[in-house]
Design brief:
515 residues, alpha/beta, 5-stranded mixed β-barrel, 15 strands
């Protein structure tokens, strides 16, 4: 029976006992086979034995976890076995994996997105999550950000995006009563009310997407975390209408934009997270039409404008259809469609998985905060309940800018590193990391100061890179250029990890490194 025709089952049962028994025996065999085969492979090929790395690290839970992740992701045998195991688990047990839940009618769901609607009130979780996150409660960070912007005469608007599980609960539970509307976390109404009470408007457009779905429009893609181009367009139009109602100065358009269709075919990020064999026929590709936006007068693409008075802070819901590397087309995302419906340029600062904190950091590092009039802060609702979101306070002004935009070569010693991601813990295949350095010597170029904030790749295509193993005390020789996310389009598709707490120094991008 095709997967798309199977109803969702409880993940702790629903499968016949003989099938379950055979699957369990197979999986146990794989657990022992993979590491043993990897060891034999390394011995036979003369490669360095990765299993011994743990003995050369300071004993700690974080180092042990990092060792496990690096070893698992670098295992050649696991790379060969993993797709087949996942296919068997999906076909026989109707189960996804740690992050993906299999729904009805060919729908896949991101497990953390389901937790927002089905879990406990997210504000009651903060005490429990305090051990996992330094800043699990979003309210202080949002209030502090609002206060800083208010001092600069800048308005702030909060724009939550519902998860796919909120808009399509019937694809998870066929008995869900659709007359109830989108399922929400029990603490959402009081939280949004508290923001409004503190003078922060919340534009909640879940109803617009729900109504569009009820009218027959597909508003979220079946095998992807994100909305369809149609769902995004409905959201952008409704958001622009709300903004024009609230702010008179947005009433008259300044520019004319035009949209043109482009057909795109792909599976989706949730399908990619399953890591199925390339020839797997279980899920068909999805084809949609994106509407690419261009400046009607110049004929050029509608690009993010760093000098625009409106700034959109967002996550992957803003990047999808805008960043080509996400495989759903480009120049057709939320920022571009906001320009189309407002008739005005927009400064887009969007980072996959980075809306809670990283986008505010990048706004601060842009150096032009004081020239803004309106900040539209978009984030998916699941961020409110995820302890990994880290709603940190961020100082939005005062970052020291680079002396020169030219490359600089230096030798520096690591002071602090950021925790690397766990490959597969979210749908983002790529990640950059921030590290603090003590400058030992400037070999060429210009640089002022005795500390450096460096940015480089730590994960590509779900594979951890050497930066994941950096430790304080390591000495590196590097060629760097000032880091500007808005002129590094290939970075917009990526997640960022930054545990340095450094909002004083202008970050530098590592072009070349030698240890």
């Amino acid at each position: 029976m095709p997967v798309k025709d199977r109803p969702i089952v409880d993940e702790d049962g629903g499968t016949r006992r003989p099938v379950s028994l055979v699957a369990v025996i197979f999986f146990v065999a794989v657990v022992f086979f993979v590491p043993g085969s990897q060891l034999v492979w390394e011995l036979a090929s003369g490669e360095r034995l990765q299993e011994f790395d743990i003995f050369f690290q300071r004993p700690s839970l974080s180092n042990i976890k990092l060792y496990e992740d690096v070893l698992a992701q670098s295992s050649r045998v696991a790379d060969i076995v993993r797709p087949g195991v996942q296919w068997l688990q999906l076909y026989t047990l109707r189960q996804g994996n740690e992050k993906v839940v299999v729904g009805r009618d060919g729908f896949l769901f991101y497990r953390p997105g389901i937790a927002y609607s089905t879990g406990p009130g997210f504000r009651s979780k903060y005490a429990l999550d305090a051990a996992q996150a330094k800043h699990p409660d979003p309210l202080p960070a949002i209030l502090d950000f609002h206060s800083q912007l208010k001092e600069l005469n800048i308005d702030l608007v909060i724009v939550p995006v519902p998860t796919k599980a909120q808009i399509y609960p019937e694809k998870l539970n066929p008995s869900y009563d659709l007359s109830l509307g989108p399922p929400i976390n029990v603490h959402q109404p009081e939280f949004f009310a508290e923001l409004e009470k503190n003078g922060i408007p919340v534009i909640d457009l879940a109803g617009a997407l729900w109504n569009a779905k009820s009218a027959g429009d597909a508003v979220y893609m079946p095998l992807d975390t994100h909305w369809t181009p149609r769902g995004m367009s409905i959201f952008a139009a409704a958001l622009a209408d709300e903004l024009k109602k609230r702010y008179e100065w947005l009433g008259e358009p300044e520019k004319k934009y035009a949209a043109s269709p482009l057909s795109v075919t792909n599976h989706g990020d949730l399908y990619d997270l399953l890591k199925l064999p390339a020839s797997s026929p279980l899920f068909p590709e999805y084809t949609c039409t994106v509407e690419q936006v261009e400046d009607e007068e110049s004929g050029e693409w509608a690009l993010s404008d760093p000098d625009a008075p409106i700034v959109l802070l967002g996550d992957s819901f803003a990047n999808v259809f805008s960043v080509g590397a996400m495989k759903w087309g480009d120049h057709a995302g939320l920022g571009q469609h906001l320009m189309l419906h407002l008739g005005r340029p927009v400064h887009v600062i969007a980072v996959n998985g980075g809306a809670p904190t990283v986008t505010r950091r990048n706004l601060s590092r842009s150096g032009n905060v004081s020239r803004k009039k309106l900040v539209v802060w978009e984030f998916v609702t699941r961020e409110l309940i995820d302890p990994a979101s880290e709603w940190e306070p961020v100082q939005v002004t005062g970052v020291k800018q680079a002396v020169s935009q030219n490359p600089v070569k230096m030798e520096a010693r690591v002071i602090a590193v950021s925790r690397p991601p766990r490959p597969g813990e979210d749908p983002y295949a790529h990640c950059v990391t921030f590290s603090r350095y003590k400058v030992l010597s400037v070999l060429s170029g210009e640089y002022e100061g005795d500390e450096l904030l460096a940015v480089q790749w730590v994960m590509r295509n779900f594979k951890l890179l050497p930066a994941a193993k950096f430790r304080p005390g390591d000495v590196h020789r590097m060629v760097l250029v000032p880091f500007r996310p808005d002129i590094h389009p290939d970075l917009q598709q990526s997640k960022e990890t930054d545990d340095t707490g450094d909002l004083t120094h202008q970050p530098y991008w590592v072009v070349e490194m030698k240890e």
